[in-house]
Amino acid sequence: MSPDPFAAYPYCPPYGSAYYHYVKPRQRSYQPNSHTDFNNPIIAVAILILDPGNNLLPILRAKDSAMPDGFVVTNERLQLTVHREISTEIGLDLNSPALKVKDHPD
Fold first, then answer.
1. At residue 96, does pLDDT exceed 60?
2. CA distance to 27, 63, 74, 75, 105, per residue, from 56 (Å)
């Protein structure tokens, strides 16, 4: 039998109460404040794009600016996720010889 994923923290993180109850095997809830914890890790990437002067280039969205980001698809390598997200969000082809891509910056 696998160990209880919630055993490491018996108290509700934001409220400090031990009044947790299981909703589903990987989900606990603290009812008085409707706080819910999920134990289902999801991997995501956030991408920093720098110009030659090392200035951060954010994406301008309707209400704010942000970095390109997204979730890793099952069995997808992180580098492929980065390529897919940049291509989808800003239309940039990272295979272009004009770009220098670092996935292990110094």
1. yes
2. 38, 18, 29, 30, 15
Whether pLDDT at 1 is above 60: no
For 45, the token pair is 């990437």
In three-state secondary structure terms, 65 is strand
List pLDDT tens digits, range 12-56.
Answer: 766 777 777 777 777 778 777 777 777 777 888 888 888 888 888
Contact present, 26 and 40 (Cβ < 8 Å): yes
Structure tokens at 7: 């055993």
Element (H, E) at 23: strand 21-24
Residues 6 and 25: beta-carbon distance below 8 Å:
no
| Predicted TM-score (pTM) of this structure | 0.56
Following CA atoms 30, 31, 35, 37 in sequence, which dihedral angle do they give, to the nearest 10 degrees? 50
Q: What are phi and psi of 89, to 5 degrees?
A: -80, -35
For residue 83 the two structure tokens come to 């390529």
